Amino acid sequence: MNNLAEIVVHARPHPFSMEIVHAEFPAGLTVAEILGPAATACNVEIGGMTIPPEWWTHIRPKAGHAVMITRFPEGGNGKTILRIVAFAALAVGVILTAGSTAPIFASIGSFLHVSAAVAAGLAAAGLGLVGSLVINALIPPQTSSAITSASASTNLLSSITGTSNQVNRYGSIPCPVGYVLYYPPYAALPYTELSGDDQYLRCLFDLGYGDPDPSDMKIGDNDLANYTDVETEIGTSPSLFSQDITEATAGDALNTDGTTATRTTSVSADEGSIDLCFASGLFGLDKNGNAVTVTCKVRVEYSLTGTGIWTAIVPSSSGLTISTSAATANVDGTIHVVNGERKAIRVGVRWKFPSQDQYDVKVTRISTDWGSSDSSSEVGDLTWTVIRSIRYSVVSSTGTKKLAMRIKATDQLSGNIDQFNCIISQPVPVWHADTSTWITEFSDNPAYVFRWLLRDCPANPRRIDASRIDDDALIAWAVECDDKEFTYSNTFDQSTTLYAVLKDIAGAGRASFNISNGKYGVIRDELQSTPVQVFTPRNSWGFGGNRAFPDAVDALRVQFINEEASFQQDERIVYDDGFGDEDMVAADPTLALATNFEQMTIAGCTNANGAWRLGRYHLAVSRLRPNTYFWNADVENLVCSRGDLVQFANDVIGVGLAQGRITKTVETDPTDPTNPFLSAIVLDEQVTGVEGTAYAVRIRKQDGTTALVSATPGVWGEPTNLINLTTALEGILPGDLVLWGEAGKDSIPLVITKIEPAADFAAKITAVDAAYAVLDADSGTPPTWTSQITGQPWLDAPAPPDLLIIDSSQFLSPLDDSGNTTSVMNVTVIGPWSGTSGAWQQSRA
Question: Where does residue 693 rank: exposed (0-12), middle (13-18), buried (19+ CB within 10 A)?
Answer without folding.
Answer: exposed
